[in-house]
């Protein structure tokens, strides 16, 4: 049972989008899913997207402060990872604070990964997102290198 996760093994610059032009939730989720498929982290774009929407029906994934953490645990995921988009403009999203979203952190979790892997990954990211300075820096990221360094070195 894995209770620690090395973010360097999960976070990948190839799965980051800076200044996404997406103007709604649907568009950004599709954009991130296509990126995951293109980079071979998932094997079935539509199936994974469906699993994300199933999870979305269970509860709000907009955690507040302009951040959303949608996630899908799916047989379509070949390798557990995270895809991140920093949006050019905030978009509407169901959130705990009723504010729009600027950053989307999509968790793609392999169905066969132990439940603890998913929880530990969420906890690790949640710990980062609990820090006000981290969130402020995250929203003002200008390139993938900055985003990667912020996450890995925080």
TrEMBL record:
Keyword Disulfide bond: no
GO BP, sorted A to Z: phosphoenolpyruvate-dependent sugar phosphotransferase system
Keyword Phosphoprotein assigned: yes
PROSITE patterns on file: PTS_EIIA_TYPE_2 (PS51094), PTS_EIIA_TYPE_2_HIS (PS00372)
EC number: 2.7.1.202
GO MF term set: protein-N(PI)-phosphohistidine-sugar phosphotransferase activity
Cellular component aspect of the GO annotation: membrane
Positions of the PTS EIIA type-2 domain: 9-154
Keywords: Phosphoprotein, Phosphotransferase system, Sugar transport, Transferase, Transport
Pfam family, one: PTS_EIIA_2
Protein name: Fructose PTS transporter subunit IIA
Organism listed in the record: Mammaliicoccus lentus (Staphylococcus lentus)
Lineage, top ranks: Bacteria, Bacillati, Bacillota, Bacilli, Bacillales
């Amino acid at each position: 049972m894995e209770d620690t996760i090395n973010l360097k093994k999960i976070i990948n610059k190839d799965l980051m989008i800076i200044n996404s032009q997406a103007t709604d939730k649907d568009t950004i989720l599709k954009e991130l899913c296509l990126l995951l498929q293109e980079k071979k982290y998932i094997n079935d774009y539509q199936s994974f997207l469906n699993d994300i929407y199933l999870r979305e029906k269970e509860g709000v994934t907009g955690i507040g402060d302009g951040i959303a953490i949608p996630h899908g645990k799916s047989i379509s995921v070949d390798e557990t990872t995270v895809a991140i988009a920093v949006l050019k403009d905030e978009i509407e999203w169901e959130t705990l604070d009723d504010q729009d979203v600027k950053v989307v952190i999509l968790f793609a979790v392999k169905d066969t990964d132990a439940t603890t892997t998913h929880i530990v990954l969420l906890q690790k990211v949640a710990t980062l997102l609990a820090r006000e300075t981290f969130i402020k820096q995250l929203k003002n990221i200008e390139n993938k290198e900055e985003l990667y360094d912020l996450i890995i070195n925080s």
